Amino acid sequence: MKLFIFISLALITNLHSASFAQNNNPRSITQDDSLKIENTISKELEQLGDSLRVLDKFYLDEQFIEFKSDTFAIERRREMRMEINWSTAGMNNASYAAEREYDQLLNKYYQKLLGKLDDEDKEILRQSQRNWIRFRDSERDVNYMLTDWQYSGGGTIQTTINANHHLEITKHRVIELYRYLSRFM
Length: 185
Hints:
LprI-like_N; Lysozyme inhibitor LprI-like N-terminal domain-containing protein; 7 helices; signal
């Protein structure tokens, strides 16, 4: 298994190196690029679903496959956007776009979970979500504060740290909501 992981990582690294070598100059993502990205992801999602179903016919449910497909598409889209525009602004834009997509996914899985709960228990989830939103906003405030020159030394890297931090907070909440949902029989 370790050999398989090592070989997979080596192949991924080589593919990324090759794509960056072909794209020496970062550029804005065109409408044509966006269509190619979506077509590629669509094909890869079919393969992912098929391979997950073949991998374990007895233990994987459709909800798991849906979640893996949803998150795969976001991560792959972000990766492909950054391959085209790997400038600081391009990376930040890709991360913020992925964060918005995860926010939509958060709403999807929140609604699914809400739909599974008894009426009297729905308010507990609603309160948890309101608390999470306050947490998210305060975390963003701390993150922005720490990008100040006096704390971090400044630099454009701070914008990338901010973008990734926004993404990770929302992504983590989506995963939490999915885990809650997966506890239902």
